[in-house]
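Figure 3 (text version): structure tokens given as input.
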């Protein structure tokens, strides 16, 4: 049964756990080198975030996890940033989509900038890493808490941050639209549609399986439209998959169904969208209730038709 959290739920410091890579990353980013002091700092930020809204991902310290660097294409993505001085990367979290009205009792991973900060720490120019999330005061507050967590300021970490709803076609559309060769002013950007054809890399994790098959196809087209047509531009991420595509029930009776692709059908979805070289593999893991589940790790790399 899902844990019901309220603002009065006691936090459990025993759930705090940083793997060696995350520990080193947080030490480097915060400047706090003593592990006990770092833990105290993160616990204090957790309490502040939980007071804003008692999200499950805050309760289990999900906001401390680094996902982007675990992807097998991560080093290739970093190389793109080194090879092209104007390369742009977009990080799209699940919380960039407004699911109000849908039967999802979970809460999203709050955006505090972990993955964006990781790619910047590894060499991508900070002003060319873009983050996005739902347009609401709550998310802005969490983004500000990211500065508290990492002991930064908008001046010391001037990564562009765009507020908007990924399900709103005026913000992110799957329909063909006009593109311009000139790059918009990222500091005043109000719509991802203004980035059509301009992004070098897009990181999107834990998103697609939350939609119907038709919605996922539409979202793939929308994300693909943002990529630069230059060979090597890439979308990459991970989400729930199946050995054979189909619908599965959510993890509680109050949840709706999830449509999950298998690697072959997921690859075809991207290949039908454009000249992409696709890779997708399933990684098996044990779920919270001991059941076998699968995470699909995928990438879609732009290529010329002659190289396909």
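Below: residues designed for each position.
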């Amino acid at each position: 049964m899902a844990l019901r959290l309220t603002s009065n739920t006691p936090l459990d410091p025993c759930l705090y756990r940083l793997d060696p890579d995350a520990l080193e990353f947080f030490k480097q980013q915060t400047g706090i080198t003593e592990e006990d002091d770092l833990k105290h700092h993160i616990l204090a930020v957790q309490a502040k975030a939980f007071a804003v809204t008692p999200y499950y991902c805050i309760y289990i310290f999900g906001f401390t996890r680094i996902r982007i660097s675990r992807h097998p294409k991560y080093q290739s993505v970093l190389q793109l940033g080194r090879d092209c001085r104007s390369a742009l990367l977009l990080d799209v979290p699940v919380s960039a989509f407004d699911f109000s009205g849908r039967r999802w009792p979970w809460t999203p991973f709050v955006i505090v900038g972990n993955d964006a900060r990781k790619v910047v720490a590894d060499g991508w120019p900070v002003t060319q890493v873009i983050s996005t999330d739902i347009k609401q005061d709550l998310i802005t507050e969490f983004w500000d808490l990211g500065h508290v967590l990492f002991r930064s300021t908008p001046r010391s970490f001037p990564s562009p941050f765009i507020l908007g709803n990924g399900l709103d076609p005026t913000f992110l559309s799957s329909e063909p639209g006009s593109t311009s060769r000139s790059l918009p002013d990222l500091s005043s950007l109000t719509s991802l549609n203004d980035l059509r054809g301009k992004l070098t890399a897009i990181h999107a994790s834990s998103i697609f399986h939350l939609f119907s098959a038709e919605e996922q196809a539409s979202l793939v087209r929308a994300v693909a439209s943002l990529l630069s047509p230059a060979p090597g531009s890439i979308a990459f991420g991970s989400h729930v998959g199946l050995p054979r595509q189909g619908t599965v029930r959510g993890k509680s009776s109050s949840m709706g169904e999830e449509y999950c692709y298998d690697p072959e059908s997921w690859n075809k979805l991207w290949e039908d969208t454009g000249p992409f070289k696709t890779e997708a593999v399933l990684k098996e893991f044990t779920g919270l209730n001991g059941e076998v589940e699968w995470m699909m790790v995928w990438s879609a790399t732009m290529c010329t038709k002659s190289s396909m």
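Residues 125 and 305 are 30 Å apart (CA to CA).
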